[in-house]
Design brief:
Length: 104
């Protein structure tokens, strides 16, 4: 069996399958030449795993960006600590402004 995922440390190496997949995720236990055993997800040993590569310019689909914006909004709206911290910062800034104004 060959690891096709190029970012795996054992990429391109032939490994012996020690325990075939027993679970729905398809992870297999392999043994390398040093007789070290480890589990590797099934998708990393499929030839289609070679499609993952680095790019000079990052790309992200519209749906992923919308999902990220939705998550950000959800987290910002549900985090009273952030609101409290922001209010404290504004209060602190106002106090400093008042002190500076009184010195003139």
């Amino acid at each position: 069996m060959t690891v096709h995922y190029s970012f795996h440390p054992l990429s391109g190496r032939e490994l012996r399958v020690f325990v075939p997949a027993r679970t729905p995720d398809g992870a297999v236990t392999v043994e390398d030449t040093n007789e070290t055993r480890l589990k590797i997800p099934h998708w990393m040993i499929t030839p289609s795993a070679t499609r993952f590569e680095l790019s000079d310019s990052p790309t992200l689909g519209v749906q992923a960006l919308l999902g990220l914006a939705e998550l950000y909004e959800l987290l910002c709206n549900e985090c009273p600590v952030s609101d409290t911290h922001a209010q404290e910062e504004l209060s602190h800034a106002a106090t400093l402004a008042d002190r500076g104004g009184g010195r003139k």
